[in-house]
## 1
Amino acid sequence: MANPLLDLHLHALAHGDTPVLSNVSLHLSRGDTLALVGPSGIGKSSLLRVIAGLDTRFDGTCALHGTCAMVFQEPTLLPWRSVAENISLTTGAGDQEIEAVLHDVGLEGRAEDFPDQLSLGQQRRLALARAFAVKPDLLLLDEPFVSLDAELVEDMMALFLRLRAAYSVTTILVTHVESEAKRLASRIVTLGGQPATIVDDTRSLKA
């Protein structure tokens, strides 16, 4: 693979005395959407944190050739700050950029509201807006649709597809829902075993 956006060689990762990941090599080209799947607790979120640079306590190398933004399972918003401030304080985005990205996620007119004035679905839209305000080369999504009802999940998947096309962003999506992986991803990587490693790496037929 020539000039991958992500080049990861993880020999080992442990939480305390518990091995979590072992011998995981992952290469990602620009434009791909990779779904990372496997049983709960297998190490999917841990792998995302390594890629994001949030966990450096591993044996191996992780080279990311570009900028990265991450959306966590929970929106992780600052409740005492406005919608606009939740974006500007972490990204440095200006007023026009904030207005544009809020429009993109369907939160236009809500810049002065606070997170507790938003529904869970709207909070997840705000978390997406904050990530896209960075204009990342790589977007990491850690189960971004969890705890939403079926209709909201459908709305959020459609929103992600629109944003992905508009921003041309490469994505790694953690999910335990097979239908989400098949709909959104051009490539599906499955973790298994203890400690976990890659047991399957399949490119989607629609890729």
Note: The longest strand covers residues 18-28.
## 2
Amino acid sequence: MANMLRAFRCDLHIHTCLSPCAELELYPSALVRKAVAEKLDVIAICDHNASENCPYVMRAAAGTALTVLPGMEITSREEVHLLALFDALPPLRQLQKIIYAHLPGDNDEQRFGCQAIVNDRDEVEGFNPRLLIGATELALDDLLLRIHALGGIAIASHIDRESFSVISQLGDVGPDMPFDALEISTMLGLAGARKRYPTQMHYPFVTSSDAHRIADIGKGVTEFILKIPVVEELQWAFAGQKGRRIAGC
């Protein structure tokens, strides 16, 4: 039975209270409780240009059936949002060092919001002082190379949005852009995306909640057919290899 493929309900874009635009109630233990209640199998934590809450969400999920992929939503120099997902914390930490070395500015909490680092026991560990809502000085193509060099998955965030998407900022998703997948917002949905973006059908489409509130977790779900929920299997599913696939595609 352990070697059989099965369906995994995945929400691969969830923020925590570390993101300045997210509600403070998105602390790790509350986030995990909501994900479990929504019967999700896999979530990915993707705060803006930061990852300090990832290990705490992973700890909060220990002992549950929920798999937590550590990740980040990065803003490129062109102000394109993209997701970087990993299996484990070490490569994410390597990417985090690169991001912080190229992320100018300091946060203005009154203007942009609180950036709370909260552990799995609901204790505030501190506050990130950087301007997480800002753009890095790294070009999109450079970021894609770095994510893949570290063994991660790169997904273009909410390509149907009118701001901070690869299409809004660059006009199109070029065939030479090595995204593993394109994310569609819940407002459009996968069926709508196939009609709107017929020239992008060589990319796999996924949908996620992009949750900035507790109530939004699980509102955008992609079902993957996998053996186990790890990055390599997701990559196979994006490519339609070894029986792994995105359900409904």
Note: The CA atoms of residues 32 and 61 lie 6 Å apart.
